[in-house]
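Below is a filled-in request sheet from our internal design queue. Each sheet records the structural input a requester submitted and the sequence that came back. We keep these sheets so that new team members can see what a complete request looks like end to end.

REQUESTER: design group, bay 2
PRIORITY: normal
MODE: inverse folding
CHAIN LENGTH: 197
BACKBONE (tokenized):
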């Protein structure tokens, strides 16, 4: 099973946003380490490790999405889709292996030609289904592993909402004067009135 990359330089005393950045960057690095070149066929072990690392990344992103409002939804959905396809591929592999074992067992007992044909047909069905799923997965992976996509995801996880707000001169979603974003202070000099718009 894929070993999780350790998240370095993190402690319970850390603020949540820098910790979130370190966690997500480590999970991204781990995720992309299993199948580096989409032009080569990965081994079953690489696919399995990729699936496990994808789960870790997705669960981390889901846990930390509050720090990234509306920013991690696409990543989470893509990871969910990749995991679904990999899971279906694994199901095909498992079913094919079970049927092949059954066929080998029955062959020793001299089954009818019809039994053999049915089992061989099922084996072929699962092989074809897995090949179609792999083609689907390879297309998804090419997009997700493209340099442009990887850089945009890396940049996005490096800038949680709180850090973006600080870069804009705000301390949090409530500005420095204690006002909520999107509201303005109204000053009417003639009436000596100060209020909220």
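RETURNED SEQUENCE:
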């Amino acid at each position: 099973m894929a070993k999780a990359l350790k998240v370095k330089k993190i402690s319970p005393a850390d603020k949540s946003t820098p910790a979130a950045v370190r966690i997500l960057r480590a999970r991204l690095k781990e995720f992309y380490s299993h199948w580096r070149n989409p032009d080569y066929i990965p081994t079953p072990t690489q696919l399995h490790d990729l699936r496990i690392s994808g789960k870790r990344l997705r669960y981390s992103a889901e846990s930390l999405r509050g720090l990234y409002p509306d920013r991690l939804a696409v990543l989470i959905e893509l990871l969910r889709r990749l995991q679904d396809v990999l899971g279906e591929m694994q199901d095909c592999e498992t079913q094919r292996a079970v049927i092949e074992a059954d066929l080998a067992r029955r062959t020793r007992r001299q089954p009818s030609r019809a039994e053999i044909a049915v089992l061989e047909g099922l084996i072929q069905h699962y092989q074809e289904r897995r090949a179609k799923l792999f083609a689907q997965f390879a297309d998804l992976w090419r997009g997700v592993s493209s340099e442009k996509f990887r850089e945009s995801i890396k940049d996005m996880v490096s800038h949680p909402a709180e850090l973006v707000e600080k870069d804009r001169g705000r301390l949090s979603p409530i500005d420095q004067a204690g006002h909520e974003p999107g509201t303005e202070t109204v000053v009417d000099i003639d009436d000596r009135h100060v209020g909220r718009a």
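SHEET NOTES:
- Confidence is low (pLDDT under 50) at residues 171-197.
- The first strand starts at residue 185 and ends at 188.
FILED BY: M.R.
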